[in-house]
């Protein structure tokens, strides 16, 4: 029997870059980690074009196709299918408020997100009808395939200096405009559609 639907608040922080990119979200504890992945792609600004996995303690939660690839290398013993793990189960396992897990995206660029449970569902019952929602955050997500934290630092250096020898090429690569402080909370919530992929 599934747990009663309750809101869970999470703070998501992208590690290893400055300025800090973070989001505070409220989701249903009935969600699977597959649903949580799709929503994280949306609110962070990723395009869902690379592998991902969640790390909870010593185990990993990932999509079935990624687990199958890991199995080819003989290392899938600690993996669980993200469609079969609920947010409620992990919140309970981590002891509620203050519990942490990681969300890894793009194993080449090695993006690591710190996910912190900020309050118990019972502490915010009025949000039950508003899930999912992004309630706050700051700064734009780095572009896909920028080269991880070091590549992003170089990217910001290039677009921030018109005299940089790579300035023009970098602007062409990104499409002409990138605001590292760009974050539109209203648009995130307005444009989200249930069941959509993370692609923006």
Automatic annotation (TrEMBL):
It holds the Pfam family PRiA4_ORF3. InterPro entries: MM3350-like_sf, Plasmid_pRiA4b_Orf3-like. Residues 8-186 form the Plasmid pRiA4b Orf3-like domain. PANTHER family: LEXA REPRESSOR-RELATED (PTHR41878), TNPR PROTEIN (PTHR41878:SF1). This is Plasmid pRiA4b Orf3-like domain-containing protein.
